[in-house]
Amino acid sequence: MLSWINLIVLLISTALMAFFYIRSVGPAKLEQKIGEIAYKKCGNYRIIASVFEVIVVINYIIYFFLPLPISIPQFFIWEYWISVTLSIVILIPSLYIMLKGVKDAGREALFPDKEHTLYRGIYEKIRHPQALGEVFLWWGVALLLNSPFLFVYSIVWFPLFYWFCKAEEKDLIIRYGKPYIDYKNRVGMFFPKKRKLNEK
Asked: Cα(153)–Cα(168) distance, rounded to whole angstroms?
């Protein structure tokens, strides 16, 4: 019974995290309706989304102790050290990319700021390093918990994070206009674009 309750909380928390995160990436559009307070409001949405994301992590951990009584195996068929090794291989680069994105975004990573300029650093290579890093962390955690179910469940984060990024970009175009459109054309979404010979 408790394992099913944990699953329900996991599903609800995932949905609420997505709902509030999508709300948090639209300050420029919201500003057209309610004024500059939109940025503070979206910052609050971002915090609420982060709280639900933490709850999801807790649900993952609880699942390790209270797996669902279903036909999916509780653990991977291989030795646990293999899961740990695979997890480390995923977590190290993912954490680096995500944290580099957080560092280069500065305060804007958590609190939308109308005065913030276009990013530098890793953002000159890819437009969404935080999302790229974070989305793979879920697979790293699932492997660390040695759970096939959580590994499969973590696939849900890929379309969700893509949705987050597309929604954010629509708002950034409202906020920055042509400079952001030029930036989109120049920099890849998740992977660096190949430079043309005349651009080198």
From this structure: 24
Contacts of 39 (CB under 8 A, 6+ apart): 27, 31, 111, 112, 113, 114
Give the structural domain span for 49.
2-199
How many C-beta atoms lie closer than 10 Å to residue 174's C-beta? 16
**From the first residue on, what is the mean pLDDT of each consecutive set of 10 residues in the chain (200 residues)?**
93 97 91 88 93 96 90 88 94 93 77 68 88 94 94 95 93 88 88 64
pLDDT at 36: 82
**Per-residue pLDDT at 81:** 93
Q: How far apart are CA 101 and CA 141, in angstroms?
A: 20
183: domain CATH number is 1.20.120.1630
Closest Cα partner for 50 from 23, 28, 69? 23
The CA distance from 86 to 105, in Å, is 29
Q: Is 95 exposed, middle or buried (0-12, 13-18, 19+ CB in 10 A)?
A: middle
Domain total of the chain = 1
pLDDT number for residue 114: 65
Selection from 61, 57, 22, 18 nearest residue 42 by Cα? 22
pTM: 0.85
Contact present, 27 and 39 (Cβ < 8 Å): yes
Q: Rg of the chain over CA atoms, in angstroms?
A: 19
Residues 6 or more apart whose Cβ sits within 8 Å of residue 119: 104, 105, 108
Assigned token pair, 70: 């279903």
